[in-house]
Amino acid sequence: MLLNKKSWKLVSITLVAVLTLSLLSACGKSNEDVVATYKGGELTLAEYNLEKKVLIFLSPQYEQLAEMEDFKTYLVNQQVAFEYLSDKATKEAKEAGKKLAADQLNQMKQQVTAEQFKTMLEKQELKESDLLGYLEQVMISMEDMTRKVTDEEVKKQYEATKQDFTVVSLRHVLISLTDANQKERTKEEALKIAKEVKSKLDKGEDFATIAKKYSEDPGSAENGGLYKDTPAGKWVEAFKQSAVTLPLNTISDPVETDYGYHILKVESRTETPFDKLTQVQKDAIKNSIGSSKIDEFMSKDLKDIIKKVNLPKSPEVKTDEKTTPEAGKDSTGTDNKATKDDKTKTDVTTP
What we know:
alpha+beta; Chitinase A, domain 3
């Protein structure tokens, strides 16, 4: 429950990317058939629409954003970027990327029954091959970029984030913003209980016993609130900072996270030097750097690669003066302006 939301993001990069599709023949295309022209290729309207279906398949909440102009611009840029990068990838990266894509698709299919997966595809008018092609292009791009990461870059990133690799054993009590009966608490209510728990611990009551009685963290409560030998980078930021700075065997003040309020006691803490990192940890650092390089490509290089963009027009909605919604809102009065938070991130880390 307390794991950092960034700890598994393999799918998050695949939410807004490009499908591997056979390009339509250039003969007979009208300007409206081409969404974007870039160095070495074109993005067709058919590719754009199919990619949008995949996006909604993977993340249904994006359906309400699909016709917003800012979001369409971002989506086109992402499509062009991954189409361009995957095409330029090395032979080795392409082979490895295809294997990763097949593995990723299998993981998706295992999360539901075969019939459910088939129904989900049919709802968006997609085939399994559409998803596989899409994942191949994304994984190839990521694999190629990650293979360019040097050992020096990995070491530098480790130095900047070495706290994440500190191994910590601690106990904690979580007072959630939802009680055992699924009734919501206010922050004030949760904080009051957390202070009461701290008071009991300050008076010397056994931490494990208190955790079993009060903690609402399903991942540790029955174990007396214990997280044993855990890399600190797996925890959300505020919790992590307390884990790596709190003096040993000291009862913390309430620590606020999105989950509620925590009372911690760190029992042991050991820094992990670079030469003691596992290969999995080093690979995770490389993936993170590769993701950052794609972000950098998007922000700095893409503008010189795209020659022309012809965004698909949104469906027209007929209204009269009595029914026209306020500017920036949809027919229900809901604000529909895209924000930075609407844009899917492309960073990839591992558990």
